[in-house]
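Predict structure. Chain length: 255.
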Amino acid sequence: MKGWRLPAKRILAPAFWLGAWALLAMAVDRELLLPGPLAVARRLVALAGKGGFWRITAVSLLRILCGTALGILGGVLLAAGTNRSKLLEALFSPLLAVIQATPVASFILLVLIWVGRDILPCVIVFLMVLPVVWSNVSAGLRSADEGLLELARVCGFSRWKTTKLIYVPSVAPYFLSACRACLGLAWKSGVAAEVLTVPARSIGRELYEAKLYLNTADLFAWTAVVVLCSLVIENILDAAIAQAGRHRRMGGGEA
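Prediction complete.
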């Protein structure tokens, strides 16, 4: 019986909000102001039947994933550097604090001066993801057990062995938490950059044009695409994490 509770909750909660949305749309009774879920679903299916829909989604997805990957890589490398050097930490901490405090719209307009609008969403995602990963990985590195580190020094462990056996297990929960947080942030900032700069073949351009021509159903449909893409990628990440955890436990059991 307990096994059914979690799936039931996952189904009932969205169903409740979809029902509330449908009732509100019926009360408003003006699709221009608030289309109902069925109208949005029909429009989404109609859009998905066009070849351009998949090209647009793929291009935006590629931009956002590239920016996310670069931000994660940069954040990990920067955390490793600032953890080893107090000078680097003192040098980069104010810069990262400024990046975190600056509104996304300001960054978009500033960066647009220096780079083309087609790659600007990738740059914006990189800038938004970098501080999150840096701060989380840095916290994970600082949480490493000092007793184990001292033992590794006494036993003459190489830097690679110390990293693999002590730092990686310490950092892993922080890193995974950062990755989960970055997925939503990456989509929000990336699509916001596309809306403000309207690059060719982008979800942001479709959102902007839907707003411009008061096509509310299209606006909701493309927003649903963003949400669905984010959820799919998050579920893929969670599945990969769970699979890696199972392999690690099996490896530990065999050892």
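Summary: The chain has ten helices and no strands.
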